Amino acid sequence: MQRALNLMERFIGAIPGYEAPEITPEGDIIIRRKRPNSGPDAAEDKPLPEGQRRV
After folding, report:
1. What is the per-residue pLDDT across 3-17, written as a single tens digit (0 to 9) for each?
2. How many domains does the chain have?
3. What is the pTM of this model?
4. Burial of 32 (C-beta count, 10 Å sphere; 0-12/13-18/19+)
C-alpha cells in the first residue's frame, strides 16, 4: 500500500510540469511541458520563419 501511495505522490508532483491541453483544428491534442525559462524572452514568443512550426 505504501508503494502505491509513493507512486501516486510522484505522479501528482509531475502534473505541474505540463501546460493545459490544446486541441488543434485538425483534432490533435497537444500537451506541452512547461519550460523553466518561459519568460518574455522565451523562444515561444519569437516568430518562426515562414512554413515552420514548433513541435
Report:
1. 999 998 888 877 777
2. 1
3. 0.40
4. middle
